[in-house]
Structures are given as C-alpha cells and as structure tokens.
Amino acid sequence: MDYHWWNRLGMGVEIDLTREQFGPEEIVTEGVVILRPPEMVRLREEYELLRDRVLEKLSRALSS
Length: 64
What we know:
The chain has one helix at residues 44-63; strands spanning 7-8, 14-15.
C-alpha cells in the first residue's frame, strides 16, 4: 500500500494534479479526509505556492 495526496475543496470539488501518474492497472481508491493542522510548517511554502496557483487557475476558469 502507498499513499496519494490531492486537494478537496468546498462543495466536494477534488483537484488532483498528479492522478495521471498512475497506470491503468493501478487502483486509486476513495480518499480519507485528513485536515492539515494549522501549526504544520513542513513544506508550508510549497503548499502555499500550490494553493495560490490553484486559486489563480480557478479564478481564470470562472471568469471565462
């Protein structure tokens, strides 16, 4: 067993930017929601960069 992480936004919208890395023979099951604690600092800069990029793409898509 291995782990795969992706983002679940409000209203149940899921954004998985790396799902295509799995081949057709691999099974990615339903996820378990794990809330990130506010004091978590590991990889914070990377998460914030990803968040900003996702929000920018969503904003552009919604305004089109």
